[in-house]
Amino acid sequence: MNPAALGLALSGGALAGLALPHAYTWLTTYPSAIAGMRTSEVAEGDTSASRRVSARSARTLVAVSELCGIGLSVASAGLAWLLRDAPGGLPLLAVWLVVMHTGVLLAAVDVAVRRLPTPVISAATLAISVVLAGQAATTGQARTLVAAALAAAALGGLYLALVIIAGSEMGLGDVRLAALLGAALGATSWPAVLLGGLLPFVLAAPEALARLALRRAHSIAFGPYLVAGALIAAVVDG
Prior knowledge:
Layout: H1 3-29, H2 39-45, H3 47-55, H4 58-82, H5 89-113, H6 118-139, H7 143-166, H8 172-188, H9 190-214, H10 223-237
Helix pairs in contact: 1-4, 1-5, 4-5, 5-6, 5-8, 5-10, 6-7, 6-8, 7-8, 8-9, 8-10, 9-10
Transmembrane segments: 61-83, 90-113, 145-166, 178-205, 217-236
InterPro entries: Prepilin_IV_endopep_pep (IPR000045)
Domain Prepilin type IV endopeptidase peptidase: 102-199
């Protein structure tokens, strides 16, 4: 494995893991922050949430952060090893590390509060765009950047249509996340786009059938399946 790839994976995973519990706590304790409200607005409206945060043990949060840092660092190194032969090289690995690190946070928040934080998705989209634009500028070839944009539009458009059809079963957060993952999949290959577009529905089917059998009305948190499907598609293609 390329030492630079391993270093990027280990350091990026460690930093993301350390920040993960703090970001999760903020986004699940202050649900209004998910919509991108200013900190002052959130603080004024969520005084009870502020008391809950202050009551938590800082020592426990630090310990959890350290464990997450180790775990995500190891997982990132594993992803780097699985993508070691992928033609996209270091830029493609950087793209998928962004997907993995933000995807873990997005999936956890979606399960907890059935929301996908717009600021997190926007930041990840910006990071991926910068990586791919930088690659296009340094190599003089924009094919990967164009493919990523087209795939993002395709998957985002597909999920927007599903939101219109399915109504409350999906939300615009799913649309934004699908577009983000579409960009990463498009930078990988078109077969990966197809596989990454289909897998979430396959992975979510058992839960959907179980909820139907148990007559549970709560909607499925689809974000984890979107992220898992994209990562599996990237590894299979790589």
